[in-house]
Amino acid sequence: MSAARGRVHAHHRPAVFEGLQGLLARMDASADLRVVVFESANPDFYLAHSDMSGKARDYTNSGGPSGVSILTDTLVRLTKSPVVSIAKIRGRARGLGSEFALACDMRFASRENAILGQPEVGVGVIPGAGGTERLPWLSGRGRALEIILGADDFDADTAERYGWVNRSLPDSELDGFVDRLARRLASFDRRPIEAAKNLVNQVSLPSMDRILDGRNAFYASLAWRETQ
Known about the structure:
49% helix; alpha/beta
C-alpha cells in the first residue's frame, strides 16, 4: 500500500502514543509506503490537549526507542520519518493537538470547524511538545509569540495566513484535496521523497537539544507557585 489513512481519537492519550509508536515502526519498515494522512474520528476534536492532572507522567516520561520520553520521541520520529505525514484537521487542535499537527509534514484544515490553539500560558504553564520550537519556523517570531503568549483560539483562515497550516479549505473540499495530494505523492518513488524531505529537514527543523529544552522547561513550569 503506497498511502495510508490513520484515525486519531481525541482521548486516552497513552493509547494514542503507544499506537503511534507501533505505526511509526510499520511506516519505516514498509518499503512501499509513501504517505500517511492523520484525521480524527471525533468531528469536534482533532486531538485535545495533554492531561494536566499529573497522571500523564507515566507515559510522557517513559522512554521511546531514541531514549527520550515517548511523547517527544514519537513527534521527532514522525517529523524525520521517510514517509510523508499529512494532518487533515477538523475540530479543535489545542496544545498537544496543535503540537502533533506541527510535527506532521503538512497541515490542511477545515475552514468551517478547525480551531487551533496553544493555551498553555493561559493556564500557567508553557508548551512542552515542540510548540515553542516548531511554530516560529512556520509563522515567524512575532506571530508565534502572539499565538503562544495570547493563548487564544485561531480559526483555520488565520492559521493559514500565519503559516500554521498549509491551507484552509471549505469543509466540503478538504477530503478531496488531501486525497488527491496523497495519491499524487504515493505515485512517486520513495527514494527522492525521502532524500528531498531530509534536505528540507536540515534547514527547517529545531535540534533535538532545543526540543528537549522545551520539554524540560514544561516539566519545571508544573512546579511553579503560580501554576499550582
